[in-house]
């Protein structure tokens, strides 16, 4: 039998020690909310966003999804446009777990059922905006949801070309230079974004359990169910035709 005092002590020791702040530039961050830290942050002009409660930042999933608690509690509209874009949310809006439970020591990770019928977060700030992502400056691959992802792709897939261009130089310039210098080299095909390139975005819905990602929320939901099935019961899923149109939900 657990006494109330024991229970209270246990709950208190389990109390997450991080929370949301708005920094002077408008970006929202997760940081420690101990009294001393908070005083220091407030001196720096940070505003504690109390209504989004406390969050635990002790595992990799939590660290990689720092805004999940805010979004679960309806805080999508707190984010400034720049943070939404830099986070890649226009093309890859995060799914909101349906369990309605923030991660803590009793719910360390979301289970497959937490994602059952989960919907992507909605950002009213993006209403009426046309965001196509970051196009690779060397090839015609699908635009990347973040600048960071684009840079990473370029660094890996176009290591040589990239090292050849100076900062700030455009693709056209670097291609022209390359052509001039070598007297005609085989260069990467010019990126030719089609008018509906926004709809060709791949895999906006990432699984929180493994590295896989999907074009539709429904596919992700189906995929996540597999994580809970014992290996011997796993059935072959029919490969469905990808319906990319429903993936991004074009703003009307
Ligand atoms: Zn959950
Ligand atoms: Zn590329
Ligand atoms: Zn998975």
In short:
With 252 residues, the chain is α+β, with helices and mostly antiparallel strands. The protein is built from 10 helices and 8 strands.
**Number of DSSP-assigned strands:** 8
How many domains? The number is 2
Q: What separation lies between the terminal Cα atoms?
A: 57 Å
Biggest sheet overview: 4 strands, antiparallel
Q: Give the overall average pLDDT.
A: 78
The hetero compounds bound to this protein are:
zinc ion
Proportion of helical residues: 25-40%
Form type? globular
The tally of helices reads 10
Rg, please?
22 Å
Order of helices and strands: HEEHEEHHHEEHHHEEHH
Low-confidence stretches: 180-202, 244-250
Beta-strand percent range: 5-15%
Structural class: alpha+beta
What are the key terms here?
about 250 residues; alpha+beta; 2 domains; four-stranded antiparallel β-sheet; two-stranded antiparallel ribbon; 10 helices; globular; disordered C terminus; binds zinc ion; Znf_C2H2_type
